[in-house]
Specification:
The protein is α+β, with helices and mostly antiparallel strands and 159 residues long. Helices cover 21% and strands 37% of the residues. It has a six-stranded antiparallel β-sheet with strand order 4-3-2-1-5-6, with no helix packed on it. The protein has a four-stranded mixed β-sheet with strand order 7-9-10-8. A hairpin with a 5-residue loop joins strand 9 and strand 10. The radius of gyration is 22 Å and the shape is elongated. About 4% of the residues have low confidence.
Length: 159
Amino acid sequence: MKNIAILIIVFFTTSIFAQTHEILKHNSEKLDANYINTDSNLIYYSLSSSSEKQKISKFAVAQINEKSNNNSKIISDKINIATKSDYKKVVILKEYETVGLNKSQELTSFIGKVKGQSDYELNKMIENSLKQKAATIGAPFIVMVSKDPENLKAIAYSY
């Protein structure tokens, strides 16, 4: 009876620490991990070598495959930017949402503010200007650093 209890405990703990998921990133990298949860555009997981909680942006992950029953869950589609006219596909992220993406370069621009222009229109012009700059270099993501019309700054990210 003692041996059966030990055997059950061993099987239970082995299944807890076994890698139950495969995370497939858009850059074709694969991670064997234990998926924990998704929150605020971040995917939390742990690796077999440690029980430490890791995180990655959902924009960097294509899908998560569950090894035990071959279920797949598509997380995000890859954004392909081919020309400057694809600027509408560029996504504006917050800094914490860039985990797992590669920093590309800093983008700068200038927008002349027209007297009587609403803040909404100005913000749209700022976003479109920086998105167009990102599209010219083929970057699907930006993080806005400065929204000052005379000194626009953003950091471009890619897969």
